[in-house]
Design brief:
Largest sheet: 3 strands, antiparallel
Structural class: mainly alpha
Distance between the termini: 13 Å
Mean pLDDT: 84
Strand order of the largest sheet: 1-3-2
Order of helices and strands: HHEEEHHHHHHHHHHH
Radius of gyration: 26 Å
Shape: elongated
Number of helices: 13
Number of strands: 3
Oligomer: single chain
């Protein structure tokens, strides 16, 4: 198991390195985006920072053979500065060096000019994480409980109606669902805020602001867990070892609680981590629609404003989170079910 863990961690590092390297190179092969700011001092400070990080070169006279001229700026002292961007490979090596040696992922060019991208991500991260954690805490027990009830009432009217309802809820995209919830909030006479409350809003309004995004993220997950748990539990209930447990004197409730429910949870529990990552990725559009100041909305804002540095850091965040989740999911099988020993010797 230790050998398997080491291999998986190394594989994740390699995968992350390849994905982010290709992404950085492809993004920087595009045309350099224009700077939105019109403040000469702010622009000079940004380009000087890029020179410090190793992405550009600065001269006081026009040069040739030093890369592409991206900006010509006259400072307050009357000095004209010429900024040349380095080739893609040089920028890529500088980017790696800044990350590994200084943990510097770059500087925002348009969204929050001059600020480090990692500080912007960390500022937005708590809101996104809190909404997703609450959604998982809300959806997992309800989905599992609903699936258990359907499995115990298999082929009943309740089960058949529930199956149709769950399929319908799974088929509805989250952004469609939150759109209807926002319309409902607009007509609720202030019962629910139709958009994310501001920092100055009362505590009760801030708490109620979680209701709509949590519902939009949780309803589909509840239905998905319900179908998954029902299928697993129905299969276990019809297995031979459960019938053997009944013949040995266990009551139906004891057999279900001690054997059926526990064994049916083996493939369900690892999927909780995968569901969290799925919700985290799917919350991008929901954050934009509900005006949530989270990482997902930041990703779209960076894309719209051509802030390549911030966009790259945001993509790295989702890539790293997804790869770490894959490790947790794989390893959880071995810890949940002792019969599963990944990487064990034959």
């Amino acid at each position: 198991m230790v050998r398997y863990i080491i291999k998986r961690v190394l594989f994740v590092f390699l995968t992350c390195f390849i994905v982010l390297s290709l992404t950085y190179i492809l993004i920087n092969m595009l045309e350099m985006p224009s700077i939105v700011s019109t403040n000469p001092g702010q622009i000079i400070a940004y380009y000087n920072k890029q020179c410090e990080l190793g992405f550009m070169l600065r001269f006081t006279e026009p040069q040739s053979g030093y890369g592409e001229l991206v900006r010509q700026i006259t400072g307050g002292t009357g000095t004209t500065y010429y900024y040349y961007v380095k080739p893609v490979l040089d920028r890529y090596l500088a980017w790696l060096s800044n990350i590994f040696l200084r943990w510097d992922w770059g500087t925002s060019s348009n969204y929050a000019m001059g600020r480090t991208t990692i500080s912007i991500i960390m500022e937005r991260l708590p809101v996104t994480i809190s909404i997703n954690i609450i959604s998982v805490i809300f959806s997992v027990p309800l989905g599992i409980g609903f699936g258990v009830i359907c499995a115990l009432k298999k082929n009943s009217v309740f089960d058949n109606v529930s199956q149709v309802l769950m399929i319908a809820l799974i088929a509805i995209p989250g952004f469609v669902l939150i759109s209807y919830l926002i319309l409902f909030a607009y007509n609720s006479n202030g019962a629910l805020p139709p958009f994310w409350p501001s920092d100055s809003a009362p505590l009760a309004t801030k708490i109620s602001g979680y209701i709509i995004p949590v519902l939009a993220l949780s309803i589909g997950s509840i239905a998905g867990y319900g179908r998954f748990v029902r299928a697993e539990l129905c299969e276990v209930l019809s297995s031979e070892y459960l019938l053997l447990a009944r013949t040995k004197g266990l009551t139906r409730g004891q057999a279900i609680l001690r054997h059926a429910f526990r064994n049916s949870m083996v493939p369900v529990l690892p999927s909780v981590v995968a569901e969290f990552i799925s919700i985290l990725g799917g919350s991008m559009i929901l954050e934009s629609l509900y005006q949530i100041p989270g990482v997902g909305r930041l990703y779209i804002a960076a894309f719209q404003q051509n802030d390549y540095n911030l966009l790259m850091t945001d993509m790295a965040f989702y890539t790293i989170i997804g790869l770490l989740a894959s490790i947790i999911v794989d390893l959880s099988y071995g810890f949940i079910d002792p019969r599963i020993r990944m990487g064990a010797k034959k």
